[in-house]
Amino acid sequence: MSNLVLIRHGQSLWNKERRFTGWADVDLTEQGKLEAKHAGEQIKALNIEFDVFFTSNLKRAINTLNLILEVLNKKNSKIIKTSALNERHYGGLTSLNKDETIKKYGEQQVKIWRRSFEVPPPPMDSQHPYKEKINSDISSESLRETFERVIPYYEKQIKPLIFLKKNILISFHGNSCRALLMKLFNISKKRIVDFEIPTGNPLQIEFGDDMKIKKYKYLDDKRAKKILFNV
Known about the structure:
Elements: E1 2-8, H1 13-16, H2 30-44, E2 52-55, H3 59-71, E3 79-81, H4 98-105, H5 107-115, H6 131-134, H7 143-163, E4 168-172, H8 174-185, E5 203-207, E6 213-218
Parallel strand pairs: 1-4, 2-3, 2-4
Antiparallel strand pairs: 1-5, 5-6
């Protein structure tokens, strides 16, 4: 048996301000730090000895993992950081307030940009205030494009560890987590639109010896979101 624990980072400064974050490298709020520490306590109660820790290259996910490792008394553990687990690139929406964007473009259009599988947000142009900070040739990403970098990394770097019965903890982001859960739970492109990942709430997935999911649960059931199967 192997355990895979997934956690979306704790509340970030831009989560609190309801701004599109994407590849902007913003940090946790005080509440986000508390969420991470609480997550650490919940993970600690599982009494699982973790073998490998993964995170993205963005500090809100890195710092969430670091706070969890402090609670687990694993501060000196090796952490594997990769841009493959980064949040999706929100393009021209980056830094914009979500409520103001809904007023301008309509709730349905913003929902499509945020949640749909195929449709990317408007591209980030050369005049965007975060263009130089992000410094990428990629101008925006759909969930499909996020899926196409998360899943190959999972298949090559993480799935073989599950096969070897290793216990793994990943701290990453709402959309990179959505992409991975699409794969693991066979969530359809249609259903993924309605699927949201809570911040700072660990999702424990247990794999049997046959590599099939045996059971799963959010550790904080009061803040859990229902996993949407492909129906």
